[in-house]
């Protein structure tokens, strides 16, 4: 039987890593040890993309290290092993076709075909409730930028935009048929308005009785809490469910650099404290309205996840409320995901998949964000080390 929500702790490494066999734990430990070395990660993240482009034989090295820890596989079928292993511990999978921004219509159609295939695949599996979609995977970045600035489009650009909207409608229609949800990722602030407008239209069309479409709210932006409130009001007026994935945001440095370079006020919060305050306020806002909002809490922050746990307890909600899903990236924060699932919450992993050379940018970002800051060992490495030690002690205890 599942533990009750009262006893959730993110420190239990036995639960956090039960899904990893000793050899997988060892691999994760070694990989985290390597990426914790700042100069090595600095060099590696610069050289690897270049080496892949030059056709140097680094693919197998990446495949047996970073890829194994952070990705589900190169194909959907190859992800089955990971999906089954997660589901054994009550953890859901959000499929994330990890191929990044493309440029031409043919590539967009290929990405579309892959996403549709992922939806059909998810439709056959109870433990894959969502797929994630990056709009820049099916529409040109520069076109989104133009739409964001409300510049007029040429005839051919209008056609491209029409086609992009059709792709999204196709994705959501199939998702609804297959009873799978679609999470629209949030991207750079200077292309986000058309994505938000599209998300509203899609939610209006598809979220009548269930949350098929989720938009993403980046609370590192100082205007997003107000935007969340407005989105909720629109959903109420329009009679549909608001699908809200809450994140802090992935492009902080890039946003600040661009704002400085072009001389406009940065859209990013003044500091981390302000970002945390708005994120936690957004969590509270959504949980207090769970009958009208589907919330995906997408964060590795232990305090924010624990806040959600406490709020469900305070409001006497069942931990497995159908409108509440927690999510962390595959290979990260297992202490949060697996302890939540163990306590009966609906917890999931974002599982990226795709050919090794295509997911390199994603892998490089994971390496960078997990490297040591100011010489400090990352939280991941500390937890993995503790679990290795625990297993060793247990093994010795059993022998003697
Ligand atoms: C399942 C999942 C899906 C995601 N999808 C998206 C997505 O669609 N779009 C997207 O942009 N990101 C996405 N992310 C990444 C996310 O936005 C964060 O970058 C990442 O999760 C780190 O934030 P955190 O809440 O986990 O934890 P924390 O470690 O507590 O927060 C780190 C984050 O805080 C913010 N921050 C740090 N310092 C400052 C500062 N000085 N001032 C203001 N803010 C600061 C930054 O956003 C930084 O990434 C996703 C993450 C997950 C787990």
Describe this structure in words.
There is one protein chain. The protein is an alpha/beta fold. It has a single domain, classed as TIM Barrel. Strands 1-2-3-4-5-6-7-8 form an eight-stranded parallel barrel, surrounded by seven helices. Helix 14 links the parallel strand 7 and strand 8. Helix 10 packs parallel to helix 12. The protein is globular, with a radius of gyration of 21 Å. 43% of the residues are buried. The model has no long low-confidence stretch (mean pLDDT 94). The site of flavin-adenine dinucleotide has 24 residues, from strand 4, helix 12 and strand 7.
- The strands making up the biggest β-sheet line up spatially as 1-2-3-4-5-6-7-8
How many independent structural domains? 1
- Give average pLDDT, whole number: 94
Oligomer: single chain
Q: Provide the helix percentage.
A: 55-70%
Q: Quick recap of the structure?
A:
The protein is α/β, with parallel strands linked by helices and 400 residues long. Helix content is 55%, strand content 12%.
SSE topology:
Layout lengths: L12 H4 L5 H14 L2 H16 L5 H12 L5 H13 L2 E7 L7 H19 L6 E4 L7 H8 L6 H24 L2 E4 L7 H15 L6 E6 L5 H15 L3 E6 L4 H11 L9 H16 L5 E6 L3 H13 L9 E6 L4 H9 L4 E7 L6 H10 L9 H21 L1
């Amino acid at each position: 039987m599942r533990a009750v929500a009262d006893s959730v702790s993110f420190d239990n490494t036995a639960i956090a890593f039960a899904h990893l066999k000793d050899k997988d734990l060892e691999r994760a430990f070694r990989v985290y040890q390597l990426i914790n070395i700042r100069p090595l990660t600095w060099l590696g993240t610069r050289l690897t993309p270049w080496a892949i482009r030059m056709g140097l034989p680094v693919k197998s090295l990446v495949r047996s290290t970073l890829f194994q820890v952070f990705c589900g596989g190169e194909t959907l079928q190859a992800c089955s092993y990971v999906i089954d292993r997660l589901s054994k511990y009550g953890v859901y999978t959000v499929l994330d076709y990890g191929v990044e921004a493309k440029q031409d219509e043919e590539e967009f159609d290929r990405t579309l075909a892959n996403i549709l295939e992922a939806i059909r695949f998810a439709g056959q599996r109870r433990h894959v409730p969502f797929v994630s979609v990056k709009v820049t995977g099916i529409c040109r970045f520069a076109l989104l930028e133009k739409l964001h600035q409300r510049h007029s489009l040429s005839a051919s650009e209008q056609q491209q935009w029409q086609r992009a909207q059709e792709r999204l409608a196709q994705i959501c229609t199939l998702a609804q048929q297959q009873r799978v949800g679609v999470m629209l990722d949030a991207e750079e602030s200077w292309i986000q308005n058309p994505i938000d407008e599209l998300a509203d239209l899609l939610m209006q069309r598809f979220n009548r009785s269930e949350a098929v479409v989720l938009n993403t709210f980046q609370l590192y932006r100082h205007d997003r809490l107000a935007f969340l409130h407005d989105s909720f009001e629109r959903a109420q007026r329009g009679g549909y469910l608001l699908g809200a994935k809450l994140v802090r945001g992935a492009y902080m440095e890039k946003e600040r650099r661009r704002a400085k370079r072009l001389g406009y006020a940065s859209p990013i919060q003044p500091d981390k404290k302000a970002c945390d305050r708005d994120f936690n306020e957004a969590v509270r806002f959504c949980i207090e309205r769970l009958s009208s909002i589907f919330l995906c809490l997408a964060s590795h922050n232990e305090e924010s996840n624990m806040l959600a746990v406490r709020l469900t307890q305070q409001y006497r909600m069942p931990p497995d409320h159908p409108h509440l899903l927690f999510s962390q990236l595959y290979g990260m924060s297992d202490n949060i995901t697996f302890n939540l699932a163990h306590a009966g919450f609906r917890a999931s992993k974002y599982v990226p998949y795709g050919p090794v050379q295509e997911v390199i940018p994603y892998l490089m970002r994971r390496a960078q964000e997990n490297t040591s800051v100011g010489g400090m060992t990352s939280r991941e490495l500390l937890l993995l080390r503790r679990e290795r030690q625990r297993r060793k002690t247990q093994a010795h205890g059993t022998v003697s």
